[in-house]
Structure formats: C-alpha cells, structure tokens
Amino acid sequence: MPFSILTLIAIVLAGVTQGAFAEGPDAAALYAPCAACHGAAAEGNVALQAPRLNHLRPVYILTQLDKFHRGIRGGEGASVAAQQMAVSSGLLPSADHLPDLAFYITELKSGPSLATLEAGNAAAGGKTFMQLCGACHGMTAAGNVALNAPRLAGADDWYLRAQLHAFREGQRGQHREDRSGRQMRNMAAMLSDEQSILDVIAYIRNQAE
Ligand code: HEC
Ligand code: HEC
Question: How many domains does the chain fold into?
C-alpha cells in the first residue's frame, strides 16, 4: 500500500498505549492551515461545508487524509466539498508528522454542533440504525476501529446528511481502491428515502455526549 498508511496506523496505535503523542506547540502549528476551514477547535464550519473533526478517532482521520491525498476520496466524480478537501490535503505536513496532527485534532474540545435540519423521528431512526448501522458503527454510534467504521455521535447533522447522499449518489466510495467506502456506499443505498435519512440522523444526534 503506498504512503504506508499501515505503518502510520501502527505508530498511532503504539502512541495510544504509550501516551507518546503529547499535545504541544508543534502540533498546533501543523493544524493552523486546517483551522481556516475546520475552525480553531475543529468544531466545523457549515458555511464552508467543512465538518467537525474533534469527535473522530486519530486512525480514521489518518485513513481519510490518505484517501484525499491519493484521490481515492475527493477525486473525479466527487462533490465540490470533497474535491476542495482533496486540494487542501496539499497543506498536510510530511508523513512522519501526520500522527501528531491527528492526535492534536482529537484532543480539541468544543460544544455540540447546532441543529441545522428539520428534526427527524429519533425513535424510528433508532430502529433503522439497530437494523442497518449498529453492527459496524456500534449501537450508540461510537464507531468501531476494527471495522474502520467512524464515530458518528457528535458529528454535524448537515454533514451526516451530505455524506449519506454522497454515498448514495456515487460521489463517495466509488473508487475501486476505496474498499471501506464501497462498503458504506452499499449501506447508504439501503435507506429508503429522505425521511429515513433524517430519522437516522435524529437518532445519531441523540447519542452525542
Ligand atoms: C478549503 C477548506 C479546507 C481546508 C483548508 C481543510 N479542509 Fe478538511 N475538509 C474540508 C471539507 C469541505 C471537507 C468535507 C469533504 C466532504 O464533504 O467529503 C473536509 C473533510 C475533512 C476530513 C474528513 C472528515 C470525515 O469525517 O470524514 C478530514 C479528516 C479533514 N478534512 C482534515 C483536514 C486537515 C487535517 C486539514 C489541514 C491540513 C484540512 N482538513 C484542511 C475543507 C477543508
Ligand atoms: C458494513 C459496515 C457498515 C455499516 C453496516 C454501516 N456503515 Fe457507515 N461507514 C462504514 C465505514 C467503513 C465507513 C468509512 C468509509 C470510508 O472510509 O470512507 C462509514 C462511514 C459512514 C459515514 C461517514 C462519516 C464521516 O465522518 O465521514 C456515515 C455518515 C455513515 N457511515 C453512516 C451510516 C449509517 C446511517 C448506516 C446505516 C444505514 C451505516 N453507516 C452502516 C461502515 C458501515
């Protein structure tokens, strides 16, 4: 695998157990170019369609940065937002600094994202989530590292909706090397309509701490 993402993930996992990646001024400098879109605390910016990042895990952030960098996400046929992020991956530091950057982002704190969507039915969404989503993302949407399934609890409602549409409409998860994206694309296709998307998002939003 190019760009040795597996090596990076190994470094990150070692860092978790050893507490090796302390937050510091260097990591803040690495994040500075990202803050212009994602916000000073990685709280997201709906006007720029740049999502919250501080609820995610380092391994998922590294995996997605690698995808953007290689054009597996944000390449041909992707949404304008995803293409923008693919271009922005040119701002990334060298590979050996990426784990520090990812850890720095996940240590940032901010209040919950404001609701921007018409509220769905969380009870109906919960049923759908248990049937179709919980096996990978966890019943409380906390994510599952072993399955590459990101945490969804805490994410912006508008971003969840945009990504479910991007998967359904083949803007994300369409690259033949994007195995985890393709998996999720098949699942997004199983949501029957817009109402079921809003319902599932209402359930996910209720899971945020
Ligand atoms: C020009 C604005 C812009 C800049 C600068 C930018 N991003 Fe993004 N980023 C975006 C947008 C827009 C998206 C959403 C892409 C989509 O909809 O698929 C995104 C998505 C992401 C994601 C995926 C989140 C997820 O839940 O899958 C990560 C991780 C990320 N950015 C990290 C970074 C980092 C780290 C930097 C700094 C090197 C950075 N971004 C700089 C606009 C930006
Ligand atoms: C087979 C396992 C699996 C199932 C079932 C599944 N997902 Fe996913 N999901 C994934 C994986 C893997 C990713 C990461 C894709 C990538 O790497 O680009 C993902 C990504 C996502 C994202 C993008 C998050 C982000 O930060 O960009 C959303 C939203 C999402 N899933 C929602 C759902 C919903 C809602 C359901 C139920 C309808 C569901 N998923 C079912 C595996 C799954």
Answer: 2
